[in-house]
Write a sequence for this structure.
């Protein structure tokens, strides 16, 4: 079915500079970002991420559509000895109020600049970090977060990671705000994937709780990566935006930064996050780790969590089910549970000599750390079998959901599906039935794309 013509968007040109502090850029770093001749150059990555930030509030989660709509957008770094400026042409007019760029968007643009420069010149080169080695990958994640000034050794464990879908019903969104409110009343900071829906709601709710408790300097952290930022641009509550190089490093940043995790209803991306975390927690090396995990939603979402719990039980078994609590329709209980659990986290970190600001002692399987590039061949080669160790099966299932996310909202994945058809997931009979049932429920509930769009599956499940 062909799409209706898109109205020509209103565009603006502007030149902006950073306010406050920004890491100084060398001439080499500026030159790296001004090389726009090569399609894969660092400049192109910066341009796409900057456009995503400027497109905050978009009604579309189709990255390919967004980039096509604003194909005339351009951003240029003007290096000067006393600082730098950004020359922006044909930017979305929604990023401006009375001809001035919204301040939060301005700040996010320079966060993008900071992170893309660091990733391109320090991480991707392979000269400083060995990205073929587990410890080297963790070291890279640590330094990206350090460069973004997120690692504060003076704070006790108070950061709650909230996961959930960007395409959720209004009553589910309202519930995420209520949970955030009870977390905010306890002075807890919030970290999400930075986008709309269940990533925005907890931050909004926490802001009210923080205001009531007169909490100042609260952190609303958004962690994203270049492949997903266009579909899930930073929501207005985010005051610390960090871009990681890929989904695997983004997920590692979540679990090493966070002290507790709350999961709201979501789709394939949320399932990927859950399977990532369970793959970590089920590793025998992490038996002593305290990382509380709660699944929660309003009463109307009870069936969703029953189905998710059944899927995890049938694929990963009762050992996985023992790693989380399910609390339905009781936001205050979620706040109490997390508040109590974080005290246990603090005791465990002190006992084991681990840092409060970065969980160094958490063991992450290297298969979880190496980037999974979703292609028809790599997806078809996934081993979805009960013959695997349970934490290894979690890794394989996580990669399957990562492929579905790519086909749903990432530009490269969307183009692959348009050209070669859906990905094929091969798995054993019982696993096949469980996976197919869960995915069908996501589609039926509108959890794969924004609710206004008709969903065409980017995958098919084949029993072997």
């Amino acid at each position: 079915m062909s799409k209706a013509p898109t109205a020509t968007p209103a565009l603006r040109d502007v030149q902006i500079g950073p306010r406050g502090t920004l890491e100084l850029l060398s001439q080499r770093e500026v030159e790296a970002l001004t090389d726009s001749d090569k399609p894969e150059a660092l400049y192109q990555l910066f341009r796409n991420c900057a456009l995503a930030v400027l497109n905050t509030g978009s009604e579309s989660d189709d990255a390919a559509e967004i980039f096509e709509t604003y194909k005339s957008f351009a951003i240029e770094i003007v290096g000067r000895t006393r600082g730098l400026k950004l020359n922006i042409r044909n930017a979305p007019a929604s990023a401006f109020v009375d001809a001035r760029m919204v301040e939060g968007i301005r700040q996010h643009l320079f966060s993008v600049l900071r992170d893309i420069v660091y990733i391109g010149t320090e991480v991707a080169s392979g000269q400083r970090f060995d990205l073929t080695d587990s410890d080297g990958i963790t070291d890279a994640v640590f330094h990206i977060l350090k460069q973004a000034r997120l690692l504060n050794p003076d704070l006790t464990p108070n950061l709650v990671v909230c996961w959930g879908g960007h395409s959720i019903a209004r009553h589910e969104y309202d519930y995420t705000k209520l949970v955030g409110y009870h977390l905010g009343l306890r002075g807890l900071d919030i970290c999400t994937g930075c986008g709309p829906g269940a990533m925005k709601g907890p931050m909004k709710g926490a802001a009210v709780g923080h205001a009531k408790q007169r909490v100042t300097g609260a952190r609303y952290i958004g962690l994203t990566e270049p492949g997903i930022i266009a579909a899930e641009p930073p929501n207005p509550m985010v005051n610390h935006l960090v871009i990681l190089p890929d989904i695997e490093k983004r997920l590692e940043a979540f679990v090493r930064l966070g002290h507790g995790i709350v999961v709201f209803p979501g789709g394939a991306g949320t399932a990927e996050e859950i399977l990532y975390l369970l793959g970590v927690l089920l590793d025998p090396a992490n038996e002593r780790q305290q990382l509380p995990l709660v699944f929660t939603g309003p009463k109307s979402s009870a069936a969703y969590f029953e189905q998710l719990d059944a899927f995890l039980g049938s694929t990963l078994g009762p050992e996985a089910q023992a790693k989380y609590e399910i609390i339905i329709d009781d936001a205050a209980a979620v706040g109490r549970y997390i508040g109590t659990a974080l005290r246990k986290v603090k005791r465990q970190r002190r006992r084991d000599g681990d840092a409060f600001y970065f969980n160094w002692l958490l063991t992450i399987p290297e298969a979880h750390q190496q980037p999974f590039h979703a292609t028809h061949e790599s997806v078809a080669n996934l081993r979805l079998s009960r013959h695997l160790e349970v934490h290894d099966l979690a890794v394989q299932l996580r990669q399957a959901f990562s492929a579905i996310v790519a086909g749903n909202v990432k530009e490269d994945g969307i183009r692959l599906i348009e050209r070669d058809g859906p990905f094929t997931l091969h798995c054993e009979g019982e696993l096949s039935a469980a996976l197919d049932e869960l995915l069908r429920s996501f589609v039926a509930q509108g959890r794969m794309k924004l609710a206004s769009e008709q969903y065409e599956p980017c995958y098919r499940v084949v029993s072997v």
